[in-house]
Design goal:
This protein has 412 residues and is an alpha/beta fold. The protein has three domains: 224 residues, Rossmann fold, CATH 3.40.50.1100; 90 residues, Rossmann fold (3-Layer(aba) Sandwich), CATH 3.40.50; 78 residues, Alpha-Beta Plaits (2-Layer Sandwich). Helices cover 44% and strands 18% of the residues. The strands form three sheets. The protein has a six-stranded mixed β-sheet, sandwiched between helices. A four-stranded parallel β-sheet has the order 5-4-3-6, with helices on both faces. It has a four-stranded antiparallel β-sheet with strand order 12-13-11-14. α9 links the parallel β7 and β8. α9 packs parallel to α11. This is L-threonine dehydratase catabolic TdcB. Its EC number is 4.3.1.19. It comes from Leucobacter ruminantium.
């Protein structure tokens, strides 16, 4: 075993600790996901319903509780755009420790307000997280306050691993666990706790990690055998958008995690819509990564399976956009461009064809001024609601069968 890695007894001790302020979140079943995955059962560990809206409170509280009296007097510092900030702020308030949280300029307003609401001093600095983190480190050097890292620390990992112990207490028959990965604190704790628990019980456990394909440093790091820094691209899953694994978390993932897969933003958007519609759960993009891996076929699980919904802190404005994107990615929204002869009655005729296919028109744009159009024709752009890809294809084909030239436009 890795020398600095927590042992099962460390996770069990941490479970008693974190339950002083955290909730034992539900483990909900999903028959739909079980059918998709082809396994007996799929369970969702609802850390989106945790206090502060994410699992991060577990590790933050476990770390802060280990501070000496002298360290508590100096206060703590964190750099975060969201869940870690709220977890540290909440834990610090409960323990009477002064917390200063550095957040980037442009941080989502709900996350900023929540962090301040938990009593932390918030400093907005830096256009990127790297700039924000440098400002936090400079503050630590100046004041002597203790920096609380988001993932690469044994006490943080111990706290996050309590998620696995709760899952296994509720469903000891779980054989596969699917976990989102950012810097690796959650999956390190979950995988180590679950596999050590399984070994004690004389059985095996499979753990699958899921990263955003636009911010996936673990796969190349595992390929070369050491943590590497990658250039990330924008992703809706900002909670797991990390450019480099932690040193300790990398070693723990290498030892305890069986496979790491990646998912696209479209995959994640579809997962968020599915969780809203079928599970009635609001989950942030990072938290939906595991479900995205199931729906996209990326996760190859066996036996009873559980996926961790790691957080639910999503800006309502982003949620609105993600829902639209997820519906479009599932072909529930379609954009059709139709060439029509410029004569009366064509709009009514096309609308009737769409209606005959039981699709719904939500927006119509009619133009005759585009320079690429023949002078005797107009273009009709229809935005329609469908039941999915097959239904959308049937609508387009019905219009073509009626003699129209139809082009399926860009997805939203």
């Amino acid at each position: 075993m890795i020398e600095a890695a927590p042992r099962l007894e460390d996770f069990e001790r941490a479970l008693d600790v974190v339950h002083r302020i955290t909730q034992r979140t539900p483990l909900e079943s999903s028959r739909y996901l079980a059918e998709v995955l082809g396994v007996p059962s799929v369970y969702l560990k609802c850390e989106n319903l945790q206090r502060t809206g994410a699992y991060k409170l577990r590790g933050a509280y476990n770390r802060l509780l280990q501070l000496s009296d002298e360290e508590r007097k100096r206060g703590v510092v964190a750099a975060s755009a969201g869940n870690h900030a709220q977890g540290v702020a909440f834990a610090a308030r409960e323990l009477g420790v002064k917390a200063t949280i550095f957040m980037p300029l442009g941080v989502a307003l709900p996350k900023l307000q929540a962090t301040r609401g938990y009593g932390a001093d918030v400093v907005l600095e830096g256009a990127t997280f790297d700039e924000t983190n440098r400002a936090a480190q400079a503050f630590v050097a100046e004041t002597g306050a203790l920096f609380v890292p988001p993932f690469d620390h044994p006490a943080i990992i111990e706290g996050q691993g309590t998620v696995a112990l709760e899952m296994l207490e509720a469903r000891p028959d779980i054989e596969t666990i699917i976990v989102p990965i950012g810097g690796g604190g959650l999956i390190s704790g979950v995988a180590a706790a679950a596999k050590q628990w399984a070994a004690r019980e004389g059985r095996t456990m499979r753990v699958i990690g899921v990263q955003s394909e636009n911010a996936a440093p673990f796969k190349p790091s595992l390929d070369v055998g050491r943590p590497v820094t990658i250039e990330t691209r924008p992703t809706i899953a900002d909670g797991i958008a990390v450019a480099r694994p932690g040193d300790l978390t990398f070693e723990m993932v290498r030892e305890y995690v069986d496979e790491v897969v990646t998912v696209s933003d479209d995959d994640i958007a579809r997962a968020i819509v599915m969780l809203l519609e079928r599970a009635k759960l609001v989950v942030e993009p990072a938290g939906a990564a595991g479900v995205a891996a199931i729906l996209s076929g990326k996760a190859k699980a066996k036996g009873v399976t559980a996926s961790v919904l790691s957080g639910g802190n999503i800006d309502p404005l982003l949620l609105q956009r993600v829902i639209g994107h997820g519906l479009a990615a599932s072909a529930r929204y379609m954009k059709l461009r139709i060439l029509l002869p410029d004569i009366p009655g064509q709009l009514v005729r096309t609308a009737s064809i769409v209606a005959s296919q039981n699709a719904n028109v939500v927006e119509v744009i009619h133009t005759r001024h585009a320079t690429e159009l023949p002078i005797s024709e107009v273009e009709l752009e229809l935005h329609i609601e469908t039941r999915g890809h097959e239904h959308g294809d049937a609508v387009a084909q019905a219009l073509r069968d009626a003699g129209y030239v139809v082009r399926v436009g860009e997805r939203y």
